[in-house]
């Protein structure tokens, strides 16, 4: 978001408290939701839960057209509409809810760097795998899309290798801590959770990617921890309910 | 206007003077011609040949029907009248630039003493014509480039391509028209188009890409149109500040609809008629031939005109419509009715009456609107004809209502709902007639019955368009 837009959103946001009827919109669940969209939506949901802000999840076929930036998910709060994790974090900050306030400047820069890493690596890998998995996209179409994101010339093997390396970096940073910045979760935790959890729980024709991630046990434990803390605690009776997760299976 | 030439006939006791007769003046022939006219009228003639000269690509069999009536003429005046009518019929086909009629005595071996030959000399339109126009629609202006291929295959087929760039809209379209040989009023049209529109009153922009086929035919005194249309509609927000209700309608939908229109038009002119009436009833059924949109839409338009005292005209009009969603789906903002504005209930903002959300007007599923007008010629006109004839002064009373209906309730509840909270307005102004297609209005309006949420245009309001309440 541009600086002017950020300032505008902050001004408007600061005025009112978080309403009860805040809603998050994402594409329909069935076959239509892309891997990357699912991950992004889960990341935003995790972040809002970590902040303790209630939000209802609604699925709409035209969610990407409804979004002001064309990307999903987006939230409808009061009469404001904000899409994507970055702007949503800004928005909640303007309302006085923030997870990264406790960080000093160095840590904040680090957090941003890791978020960029996740966005560049994992998001793009998800897109690639989705396209390959479709089996309907021709080889040349995939190659064209990959060169559009700057990944021309990478084979599936290389993509897996890149994902592995990204996960290794994350795993090293996480170490034995509960969250990336020790005791308290931040937006980085939400983002990593969203992507890793989606890759692990989505049924693809090729499970190699999931297997590679499972090699990093601390990431697995991290995902389980977040799932238990933030997604199961409100739902002691069972799993179902449209206001919960978008994807069924859990890690536990 | 063409001229009809008639050579004198030797068997008549006349002094060999050429008669130059104009068909329009048939009723006002001078008295000294009366004796000659009598002789002419009583004279039996037989039309032996009817020729058409100047045909290039037009096929002769196509024109046979238009000129066949001329053979039935029994005397000279009848021949001239029927030739004139045939000339009009040839011109309305839209394939000739000019048609001249020549009536001559028959010559040749098989010529009868009272035989006549009628010849139509035609000038065909060029194969390809281009045009550039500026157009004024309902409160917007645009530049229109056109390419036309009239009479492509020789039987009246027409192919048109149009590109329109406007203040609010950009569109292009390809149209193919084919009349039935022998009955021009029965015709078939195929359209392919892309139209973009911006509707700031709803913060909505719409892009339609569609194909439609249309069949027109007359039936007794009425004109009917049957049409199938398939449209891929893309709706989007015009501004980031669009209301959420409009945002929810964004996206792509497909509409496949069959529609039927019936028109009875006895007015003497489409714009500022002096007498006559218009009734237009239209229904549209969407969803049974595919697509996402599923509804039945009915709307009608009624207009009555009557000359009043001192050259003024009293005019009353009534519009109404209903949209019934089918299958429990909600209706789309692109299908609903809108009300208000200089072409509708005057004194209110453009389409700014009825259900709205955060300042964006969402339209309604049922509406009615009515108007009573008194048109008078401008006072103190110096002479008949001239620019002053295109103007009228105009006193009006408009009323209307637009709302959504809950179709579970009965018709009584619906009528009640449409009858409460009526918006109405009155005022006066000046109307200018533009060609035979459009009109401009400048009115002073006083809106009344304004409900919360409506936007008004109190005072002076300017309007330009084709269809006015």
Automatic annotation (TrEMBL), chain A:
Q: The Metaxin glutathione S-transferase domain covers which part of the protein?
A: 164-226
Record-linked SUPFAM superfamilies: GST C-terminal domain-like, Thioredoxin-like
**Which segments constitute the Thioredoxin-like fold domain?**
40-135
Show the coiled coil region(s): none
UniProt-annotated stretches for the region Disordered: 233-252
Q: Which GO terms describe its biological process?
A: mitochondrion organization
What's any one GO cellular component for it? Answer: SAM complex
Q: Tell me which Pfam families the record gives.
A: GST_C_6 (PF17171), GST_N_4 (PF17172)
- Could you tell me what this protein is called? Metaxin-2 isoform X2
TrEMBL record, chain B:
All residue ranges annotated as the POTRA domain in the record: 45-125
At the top level of its lineage, which domain of life is listed?
A: Eukaryota
**InterPro entries recorded:** Bac_surfAg_D15, D15-like, POTRA
Q: Which GO terms describe its biological process?
A: mitochondrial respiratory chain complex assembly; protein insertion into mitochondrial outer membrane
Does Membrane show up as a keyword for this record?
A: yes
Compartmental location: Mitochondrion outer membrane
Alphabetized, the UniProt keywords read: Membrane, Mitochondrion, Mitochondrion outer membrane, Transmembrane, Transmembrane beta strand
Q: How does it sit in the membrane?
A: Multi-pass membrane protein
The record's Gene Ontology cellular component field reads: mitochondrial outer membrane
Per the record, the major location class is mitochondrion
Per the similarity annotation, which family is this? Belongs to the SAM50/omp85 family.
What is the name attached to this protein's record? Sorting and assembly machinery component 50 homolog B
Q: Which taxonomic lineage is given here? A: Eukaryota, Metazoa, Chordata, Craniata, Vertebrata
């Amino acid at each position: 978001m541009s600086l002017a837009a950020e300032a505008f959103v902050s001004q408007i946001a600061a005025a009112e408290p978080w309403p009860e009827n805040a809603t998050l919109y994402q594409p329909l669940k069935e076959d239509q939701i892309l891997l990357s969209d699912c991950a992004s939506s889960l990341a935003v949901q995790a972040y809002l839960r970590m902040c303790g802000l209630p939000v209802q999840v609604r699925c709409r076929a035209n969610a990407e057209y409804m979004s002001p930036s064309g990307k999903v998910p987006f939230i409808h709060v009061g009469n404001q509409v904000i899409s994507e994790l970055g702007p949503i974090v800004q928005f909640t900050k303007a309302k006085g809810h923030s997870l990264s306030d406790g960080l000093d400047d160095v840590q904040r820069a680090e957090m941003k760097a890791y978020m960029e890493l996740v966005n560049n690596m994992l998001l793009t890998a998800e897109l690639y795998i989705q396209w390959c998995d479709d089996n309907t996209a021709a080889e040349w179409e995939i190659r064209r899309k990959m060169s559009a994101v700057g990944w021309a010339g990478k084979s599936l093997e290389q993509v897996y290798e890149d994902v592995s390396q990204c996960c290794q970096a994350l795993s090293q940073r996480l170490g034995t801590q509960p969250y990336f910045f020790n005791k308290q979760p931040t937006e980085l935790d939400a983002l990593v959770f969203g992507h890793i959890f989606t890759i692990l729980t989505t049924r693809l024709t090729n499970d190699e990617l999931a297997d590679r991630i499972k090699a990093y046990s601390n990431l697995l434990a991290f995902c389980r921890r977040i799932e238990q803390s933030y997604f199961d605690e409100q739902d002691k009776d069972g799993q179902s309910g449209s206001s919960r997760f978008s994807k069924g299976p859990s890690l536990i | 206007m063409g001229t009809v030439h008639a050579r004198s006939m030797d068997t008549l006791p006349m002094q060999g003077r050429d008669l130059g007769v104009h068909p329009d003046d048939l009723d006002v022939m001078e008295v000294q011609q009366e004796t000659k006219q009598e002789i002419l009228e009583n004279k039996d003639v037989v039309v032996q040949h009817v020729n058409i000269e100047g045909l290039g690509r037009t096929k002769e069999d196509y024109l046979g029907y238009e000129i066949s009536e001329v053979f039935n003429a029994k005397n000279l005046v009848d021949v001239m009248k029927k030739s004139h009518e045939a000339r009009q019929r040839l011109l309305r086909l839209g394939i000739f630039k000019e048609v001249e009629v020549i009536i001559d005595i028959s010559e040749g071996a098989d010529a009868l003493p009272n035989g006549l030959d009628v010849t139509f000399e035609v000038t065909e339109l060029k194969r390809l014509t281009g045009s550039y126009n500026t157009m004024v629609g309902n409160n917007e202006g645009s530049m229109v480039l056109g390419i036309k291929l009239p009479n492509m295959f020789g039987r009246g087929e027409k192919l048109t391509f149009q590109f329109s760039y406007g203040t609010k809209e950009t569109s292009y379209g390809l149209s193919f028209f084919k009349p039935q040989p022998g009955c021009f009023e029965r015709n078939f049209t195929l359209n392919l188009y892309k139209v973009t529109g911006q509707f700031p009153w709803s913060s909505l922009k719409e892009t339609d890409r569609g194909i439609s086929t249309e069949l027109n035919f007359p039936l007794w005194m009425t004109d009917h149109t049957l049409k199938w249309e398939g449209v891929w509609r893309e709706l989007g927000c015009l501004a980031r500040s669009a209301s959420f209700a409009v945002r929810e309608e964004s996206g792509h939908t497909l509409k496949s609809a069959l529609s039927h229109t019936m028109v009875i038009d006895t007015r003497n002119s489409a714009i500022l008629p002096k007498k006559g009436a218009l009734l237009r009833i239209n229904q549209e059924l969407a969803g049974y031939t595919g697509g996402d949109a599923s509804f039945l839409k009915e709307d009608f338009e009624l207009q009555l005109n009557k000359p009043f005292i001192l050259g003024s005209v009293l005019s009353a009009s009534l519009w109404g419509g209903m949209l019934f969603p089918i299958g429990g789906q909600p209706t789309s903002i692109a299908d609903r009715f809108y009300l208000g504005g200089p072409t509708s209930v005057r004194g209110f903002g453009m389409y700014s009456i009825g259900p709205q959300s955060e300042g964006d007007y969402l339209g309604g599923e049922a509406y009615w609107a009515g108007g009573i007008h008194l048109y008078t010629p401008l006072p103190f006109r110096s002479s008949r004809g001239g620019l002053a004839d295109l103007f009228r002064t105009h006193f009006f009373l408009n009323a209307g209502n637009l709302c959504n209906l809950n179709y579970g309730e009965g018709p009584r509840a619906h009528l009640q709902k449409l009858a409460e909270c009526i918006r109405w307005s009155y005022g006066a102004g000046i109307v200018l007639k533009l060609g035979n297609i459009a009109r401009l209005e400048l009115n002073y309006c006083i809106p009344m019955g304004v409900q919360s949420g409506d936007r008004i245009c109190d005072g002076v309001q300017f309007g330009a368009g084709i269809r006015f309440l």
